[in-house]
Design a protein that fits this description.
With 266 residues, this protein is of the alpha+beta class. It folds into three domains: 5-48, Uridine Diphospho-n-acetylenolpyruvylglucosamine Reductase, domain 2; 59-166, Uridine Diphospho-n-acetylenolpyruvylglucosamine Reductase, domain 3 (2-Layer Sandwich), CATH 3.30.465; 170-265, CO dehydrogenase flavoprotein, C-terminal domain (Enolase-like, domain 1, 2-Layer Sandwich), CATH 3.30.390. It is 33% helix and 25% strand. It contains eleven helices and 14 strands. The strands form four sheets. Strands 4-5-10-6-7 form a five-stranded antiparallel sheet. Strands 11-12-13-14 form a four-stranded antiparallel sheet, sandwiched between helices.
């Protein structure tokens, strides 16, 4: 690991000030991606600005169907929140199955969103539910926020402070997990609201999270797993790697969508 200077930010404003003062400073939340990258010398920031102790980034608020999760909340805290589990059980269930206990107690929702790993779980949920990513500078619709593999609409000095959304009438998430990393080789989040159905896919796209319009159309007619009987989705623009081919992932999308709908109808 290269030499770096550690800073413990006391506020969002303090974190931004520290980041701007560094030659190549990076914000550190859970560190689930950045620290391993530094250990293998794939990343070498001059400074690390630790956000884990910033109170402004903490807390979960549920008001009716309106939900706000502070960016500094760990996956374990999201999974354990009783109010959230009642208002939007799919999110609590999703958080409970991210990685392993160490990852869940260190990784944060803000870090996951800002990193935008193509196999991360939260991006699919936030896109499907029409969530908003709140930063210290602005608010960004989830569909506009995730722009590509490990790419987002964030500026270098911009910090994700919270995510907000209105809980849908029904929603569910299912993923086919890599047995070692527990990342989604394919994950599908379905959400039904009065405005229709949205379906977002993670872990399968060449360019990261995306919406499946074919599955949305089928579920808009009947929000039931049987609506996907015999359905196929194109493998164009899907990922092929050492774990699965694009064709295999295309099949997984339909299978995981069926399971997600079954969960949503629970």
């Amino acid at each position: 690991m290269y030499q770096t200077t550690y800073h413990r930010a006391s506020s969002v404003a303090d974190a931004v000030k520290l980041q701007k003062a560094g030659e190549d400073a990076k914000f550190l939340s859970g560190g689930m991606t950045l620290i391993p990258a530094m250990k293998t010398r794939l990343a070498a920031p001059s400074d690390l600005v630790d956000l884990r102790h910033v109170d402004e980034l903490k807390g979960i608020t549920v008001s009716g169907r309106s939900i706000r999760i502070g960016a500094g909340m760990t996956h374990a805290e999201v999974a354990a929140n009783a109010e959230l589990a009642r208002a939007c059980p799919a999110i609590a269930d999703m958080a409970a199955h991210i990685g392993d206990p160490h990852v869940r107690h260190m990784g944060t929702i803000g870090g996951s969103v800002a990193n935008n790993d193509p196999a991360a779980d939260y991006p699919a949920a936030l896109v499907a539910m029409g969530a908003t990513i709140v930063t210290d500078q602005r608010e960004i619709a989830a569909e506009d926020f995730f722009t590509g593999l490990f790419e987002t609409a964030l500026n270098d000095d911009e910090i994700v402070t919270a995510v907000t959304w209105e809980a849908p009438e029904k929603c569910g998430y299912a993923k086919f997990r890599n047995p070692a990393s527990r990342y989604a080789m394919t994950g599908v989040f379905v959400a039904k609201t009065g405005d229709g159905v949205k379906v977002a896919v993670t872990g399968a796209g060449d360019d990261g999270v995306f919406r499946s319009t074919e599955i949305e159309a089928a579920l808009s007619k009947s929000f039931d797993a049987s609506a996907l009987d015999g359905m196929t989705v194109p493998s164009d623009n899907l990922m092929t790697d050492m774990h699965a081919s694009a064709d295999y992932r295309a099949n997984l999308i339909v299978v995981m969508a069926r399971r997600a709908v079954a969960k949503a109808n629970g």
